[in-house]
Amino acid sequence: MQLKDKEFFTESYPVLPLRGLVAFPGMILTVDVGRPKSVKAVNKAVETESPLFVVTQKSITTDAPKSTDIYSVGCLCQVKQVLKVGNEVKVMLQGIARGKHYSFFDNGNYFVASVEEIFDSEIKNRPVYLEGLSRRIHNEFMRYAEVAPEMPQEIIKTVLSNTDIAFLCDYIAFNINAPFDDKQFVLEQTSAVKRGKILLELLSKEREICKIDNKIVEKTRRNIDDNQKEYYLKEQIRVISDELYGDDSSNEIDNYYEAVNSLNADDSVKEKINSEISKLSKMPQGSHEGTVVRGWIDLCLSLPWNTLSKTHTDICNAQKILDRDFYGMTKVKDRITELLSVYALAPEITGQIICLVGPPGVGKTSIGRTIAECMGRKFQRISLGGMHDEAEIRGHRKTYIGAMPGRIINALKLSEVSNPLIMLDEIDKLANNYKGDPASALLEVLDPEQNCKFCDNFLEIPYNLSKAVFITTANSLDTIPAPLLDRMEVIELDGYTREEKFNIAKKHLLKKQLVRHGLNGKTCRISDDALYGLIDYYTREAGVRKLERSIGSVCSKVAKKIACNEKTSVAVKSKDLIDLLGKHKYKPEVILDNDEVGIINGLAWTRVGGEIMQLEVAVLEGTGKVELTGNLGDVMKESASAAVTFVRANASKYGIATDFYKSKDIHIHATESAVPKDGPSAGVTITTALVSALTGREVKRDIAMTGEITIRGRVLPIGGLKEKAMAAYTGGVKTVFIPKANTPDIDDVDPLVRENINFVPVSHVEDVISGALVDLNTTDTENIYFGNNSSGTTAQRICK
User: Fold this and answer.
1) Fewer CB atoms inside 10 Å of the end CB: C or N, the chain?
2) Are 538 and 550 contacting, i.e. CB atoms less than 8 angstroms apart?
3) Exposed, middle or buried: residue 690 (CB in 10 Å: 0-12, 13-18, 19+)?
4) With contact defined as beta carbons under 8 Å apart, do 419 and 377 qualify?
5) Is the pLDDT of residue 478 over 80?
6) What pLDDT is recorded for position 223?
7) DSSP 767-778
8) Which helix (H) or strand (E) holds 570?
9) pLDDT tens digits along 544-579
10) Of 131, 110, 98, 112, which is closest to residue 24 (Cα–Cα)?
11) CB count, 10 Å around CB of 575?
């Protein structure tokens, strides 16, 4: 069909701009038309039965093309079929002739252009040359078809059965998978011979591209399973990257190398990491081993290595922080300031490992946080309670699926510095089983001579832990292995006394609970006697956790009253506690109302503080039996035997029948039988009670005593004097007999207690008996001791 036969080549035609497609004369092309102006252009061509000028856009991203956005040469096409699908139109076009537009504009509804038909130039080459060119086109196309994916047989047959160069060039260029700008270049050629030469170059280039693509696909197929579609796509990306960048598998590897170069670590560490990165680059994407190596590299890059934080050495500021957060604890505060002083004078010192031992609730963990604040160190806490797997400390080996580093390395990772303060909480509660002994693994961590090259099983690179400060906490030293305990400096935290609890509650706990419950000093006022009431009647502990909860309960009751508009402010006094918290849970231990025979005040130490433990002795007619009741331990029973032996040896001195051990039965009883009791410090108490019961002389009601006795009557030192003295003061005792060797321990006693109690140091039980029994001569007042000291023992003697 020739356009000039119908004489419409000088007219304007509706224009259909194509994106990424090129129409050729004689070829059938199906396109999806979605742009409104393009749809209207198609409809206009159908209505007028005129050709449609189909031209390719230079950029596929242009939505409203202008004259400069489209190529000048296109193809006049006849609309063969139109099918509407949703908002789009599927159009079948058949190319008629090449055309060149001279004016391209938008008439408001669709694009219009004046088109001139382009005819092929006359072929002047010899027939033999044309035949040779035709054969070369056939051969090059067949070589392309061999490597081109899924080339249809119909196209191959059509090419082989045709020798017209002009048709072959248009047909092959239309059907091969080549860039649209290359196809456009073929369309623009008016010389069939030149068009053939260009096509030969295009086929050669596309054949090489197909070979590379097939090579990539083949490499990928060898390394993956056919059923793993996701893995297949990732492997294609890896192989493509391998073709482009050689040994570098992806940008991930480059990023790893850059991160290693900027890492603040020794060269040996960097070499090890680079070695693992090199291995990772040769591993298949998504392999299990690759995942483990990638996790190892990420860990190494996230560790602080040689990154250190600056240690604060301002001793005065540290003292202010300690006084701000804690009341009392003089020994602990002094040791902390000493530690900081050493760091100020010798910054490179290592091996500072402290173990804080004390009952629950006395603030061991809080002390660790405050020490970190004083030193300016990052703080990390590791709970060891119930830990039974050695791998929790040393980590798992990389060969195991799900392997991870140990808690120590993870704490350094989280702190982002190599010199944090790491608190190992509840070190006395470590367990062990077939998986190993964590306590043994800690030997290396807490040994200053070894932890400079601590080796985690997962990390496999020695890490220097000597710059870190380790603080451990424990409730008891009994369960800590001796080799581990030997590596730590033990600081004991005794339970708080009544006065210490009061001051802690008033200065810290009350303010904290008021803020937590939305109250303030105006809306809720808790008097001092109410705080003392909470301590005496609602808590019985060494620490202050229950006391804080009790204060919180009072605040919540007050908050409810204020929220319900019952009151605008509440003043809580001691008498209000029963209404707020219910009946008293505990009763304070007090002395007797009158002097009694055979009843005496002993002093006991427990983990929740000191207590008054009353001992009773009864003498009965009998055959010399000695009965011990009150849930006494073996040591306390031995103390009773020693007391009986001393009284027998000195019976005549106190006017006691020398054969009382034959004619009398003796019953020794410690009150509160449900509570186990043990320890030697009740020796002088039992002896004095025995003498009182056998002589019928009363014991002074306002005295108490403590001390171990020998069968010769010597009084030996005991522990827990601070707590015992507070219990005596609380119970109304005025005089306390203590072993003379414990005289220095009086300095540790609360000042309020020292002001209100007379401490009588004794070296022999005769001094106790003479001062405690009413009918015997008491010691001269000059013998009463009020002195101070600076040290004392803390061993438990009587425990309830």
Assistant:
1) N
2) yes
3) buried
4) yes
5) yes
6) 64
7) HHHHHHBTTSPP
8) strand 570-572
9) 889 999 999 999 999 998 999 888 888 999 888 988
10) 98
11) 11
CA dihedral 225, 229, 234, 238 (to 10 degrees): 40
Measuring CA to CA, how many Å separate 463 from each of 265, 309, 729? 10, 17, 54
Burial of 152 (0-12, 13-18, 19+ CB in 10 A): exposed
Positions marked catalytic: 681, 724
In angstroms, how far is CA 50 from the centroid of its own chain?
Answer: 75
Q: What is the mean pLDDT of residues 454-470?
A: 89
Distance CA 614, CA 604 (A): 10
Say which DSSP state 310 is in. P
| Residue 547 vs residues 539, 574, 608: alpha-carbon distances, Å | 6, 15, 13
**CA pair distance 413, 422, nearest whole angstrom:** 12
DSSP assignments along 629-688, one per residue: ESSB-HHHHHHHHHHHHHHHHTTGGGT--TTHHHHEEEEEEES-TTS-B--STTHHHHHH
Q: How far is CA 535 from CA 506, 517, 546, 549, 574, in A?
A: 12, 21, 9, 11, 11
pLDDT at 775: 64
> Up-side HSE of residue 729: CA atoms within 13 Å toward CB?
21
For 405-446, the pLDDT digits (tens) are 989 999 999 999 998 999 999 998 887 776 778 888 888 888
CA 311, 313, 316, 319: dihedral to nearest 10 degrees?
Answer: 50
In this prediction, residue 363 carries a pLDDT of: 83
User: In angstroms, rounded to a whole number, what is the distance separating the alpha carbons of residues 284 and 536?
Assistant: 70
How much is the pLDDT for 787? 30
Residue indicated by tokens 């938008």: 106
Q: What is the mean pLDDT of the chain?
A: 84
| DSSP H/E element including 80 | strand 73-85
Pairing of strands 715-716, 708-709: antiparallel
Distance of CA 763 to the CA centre of its chain: 57
φ, ψ of residue 526 to 5 degrees: the values are -110, 120
Angle between helices 364-375 and 330-345 (to 10 degrees): 30
Estimate to the nearest angstrom the gap between the alpha carbon of 148 and the chain centroid: 55
* The two structure tokens encoding residue 665: 């039965």
Residues 6 or more apart whose Cβ sits within 8 Å of residue 302: 413
Q: How far is CA 152 from CA 148, 149, 581, 583, in A?
A: 10, 9, 91, 96
The answer to whether the beta carbons of residues 698 and 596 sit under 8 Å apart is yes
Place of tokens 């009072």: 554
Reported as a single tens digit per residue, the pLDDT across 503-530 is 889 988 999 999 999 998 888 999 999 9
φ, ψ of residue 102 in degrees (nearest 5) = -120, -20
Distance of CA 459 to the CA centre of its chain: 18
Stretch 298-302: mean pLDDT: 91
pLDDT confidence band for 358 (50 / 70 / 90)? confident
User: Quick one: tokens of 788?
Assistant: 């101070």
pLDDT digits (tens, 9 = 90+) for 182-217: 888 988 888 888 888 888 888 888 888 888 888 888
- Tell me if residue 593 falls in helix, strand or coil: coil
Please tell me the distance from the alpha carbon of residue 107 to that of residue 100, in angstroms, as a whole number: 19
Q: At residue 21, does pLDDT exceed 80?
A: yes
